């Protein structure tokens, strides 16, 4: 089978797999191993880092979307009148799967001597189940416990922990009066009963958000109308397009904001970090790949007699150049393949590896107060892996050009003079 390959490739394979003890320079084997290991390490590191960043984005987005809608509809004149009619119009778009009205109010929760800021979301439980998965995140209760007039409330579990409350406890919600003076005002106070807690796994929501029935929230805020409407889609990735379509087909006073715009700064920052991390780690691969220059230069010096004999037998300078380019490319492919295998293995088992690392270091590497997550997520994507492998092999190929060109220029007579 090998006999059918071009002789340049056969020689390159022989040089790559040759026994190191037969080489004149014993350091060449060490340098070759370092080159392959450097490429493999750089590729593996880049795959793991990008997989973790992909997993971080995917996990946080999923947890965000358990609380925020795919599209939010607000009337720029204030409250949203006839939300049922607005929802019916929106459902005319086949991409829209459901909708629910909402009220949002800011206040302070008071329990004994503990006070915490809170964003209370007034919801209609039956409709809310069509736009979010919050009902599945509730512990020690259920969403249907939010009945109008009973002033029940469901707290994020972190918020409940900081307040020191449990199911059945009563606490006070303090809100500023509408249009109150900035210097002196008496907040409105409403007593609520805790009927449960929820845990969406996102610290921002678990520590600052509470749920109440929309009628109770409107009564506290003294609102006649809902604040807006939340819409869910069959495909959340179509949210920007659907928001634009609804904005064009529905009354002009309605504003449509999709979920990517609600967290635009966060997603933009994460994408920017991902690009910068890719560039930084590609430089690591580049350094390892260009170690091939010194490796091949030493290889060319070690094989000058072989090169002279090949030239004497009729090999052209182009063929000599091809031999060493193929050898360098093979080293790059081997290092890349090893790096891809190691990177994918680590990325797919990061949830097992990280606890061991944290135990060895004696510290927590991921703070949920900062990163919203308590464990390291990972989402290896084949597009990233193919791109990383392609860049690595391309850099290794570029690194072969100079020493291969030098090999092609060797004078056979000069090389054999001292042999």
Folded structure, characterized:
This protein has 419 residues and is of the alpha+beta class. The protein has helices at 7-17, 27-64, 83-90, 125-128, 157-163, 203-206, 214-221, 239-249, 259-262, 264-302, 304-312, 317-348, 350-361, 368-371, 382-399, 401-408, 412-416; strands at residues 71-75, 96-111, 114-123, 138-139, 152-156, 170-175, 188-198, 209-213, 228-233, 254-258. The chain has 2 domains: 2-62 and 266-416, no CATH class; 70-259, no CATH class. Helices cover 53% and strands 17% of the residues. The protein has a 6-stranded mixed β-barrel. Strand 2 and strand 3 form a beta hairpin. It is elongated, with a radius of gyration of 32 Å.
Shape: elongated
Radius of gyration: 32 Å
- Cα distance, first to last residue? 33 Å
Q: What profile does the largest beta sheet have? A: 6 strands, mixed, barrel
Q: Strand tally, please?
A: 10
User: Uncertain runs with pLDDT below 50, 5 residues or more?
Assistant: 19-23
Helix content: 40-55%
Q: In which order are the strands of the major sheet placed? A: 2-3-8-5-7-6
Q: What is the number of helices?
A: 17
Domains counted in the coordinates: how many?
2
């Amino acid at each position: 089978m090998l006999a059918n390959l071009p002789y340049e490739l056969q020689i390159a394979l022989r040089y790559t797999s040759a026994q190191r003890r037969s080489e004149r320079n014993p350091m060449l084997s060490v340098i070759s191993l370092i080159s392959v290991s450097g490429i493999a390490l750089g590729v593996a590191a880049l795959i793991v880092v990008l997989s973790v960043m992909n997993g971080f984005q995917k996990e946080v987005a999923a947890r965000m979307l358990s609380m925020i809608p795919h599209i939010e509809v607000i009337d720029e004149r204030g409250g949203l009148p006839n939300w049922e009619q607005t929802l019916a119009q929106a459902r005319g778009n086949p991409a829209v799967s459901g909708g629910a009205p909402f009220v949002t109010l800011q206040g302070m929760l008071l329990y004994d001597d503990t006070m915490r800021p809170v964003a209370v979301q007034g919801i209609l439980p039956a409709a809310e189940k069509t736009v979010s998965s919050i009902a599945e995140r509730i512990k020690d209760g259920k969403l249907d416990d939010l009945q109008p007039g009973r002033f029940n409330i469901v707290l994020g579990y972190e918020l409940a922990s900081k307040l020191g409350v449990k199911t059945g406890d009563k606490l006070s919600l303090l809100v500023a009066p509408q249009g109150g003076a900035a210097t002196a005002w008496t907040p409105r106070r409403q007593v609520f009963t805790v009927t449960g807690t929820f845990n969406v796994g996102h610290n921002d929501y678990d520590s600052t958000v509470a749920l109440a029935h929309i009628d109770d929230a409107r009564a506290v805020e003294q609102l006649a109308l809902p604040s807006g409407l939340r819409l869910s889609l069959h495909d959340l990735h179509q949210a920007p397009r659907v928001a634009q379509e609804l904005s064009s087909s529905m009354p002009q006073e309605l504003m449509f904001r999709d979920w990517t715009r609600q967290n635009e700064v966060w997603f933009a920052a994460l994408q920017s970090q991902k690009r910068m991390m890719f560039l930084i780690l590609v430089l690591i691969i580049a350094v390892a790949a260009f170690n091939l220059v010194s490796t091949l230069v030493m290889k060319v010096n070690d094989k000058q007699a072989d090169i002279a004999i090949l030239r004497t037998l009729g090999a052209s300078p182009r063929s000599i150049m091809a031999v060493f380019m193929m050898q360098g490319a093979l080293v790059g492919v081997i290092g890349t393949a090893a790096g891809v295998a190691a990177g994918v293995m680590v990325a797919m088992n990061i949830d097992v590896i990280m606890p061991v690392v944290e135990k060895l270091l004696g510290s927590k590497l991921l703070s949920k107060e900062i990163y919203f997550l308590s464990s390291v997520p990972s989402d290896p994507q084949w597009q990233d892996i193919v791109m990383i492998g392609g860049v690595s092999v391309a850099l290794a190929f570029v690194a072969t050009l100079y020493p291969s060109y030098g090999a092609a220029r060797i004078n056979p007579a000069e090389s054999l003079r001292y042999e």
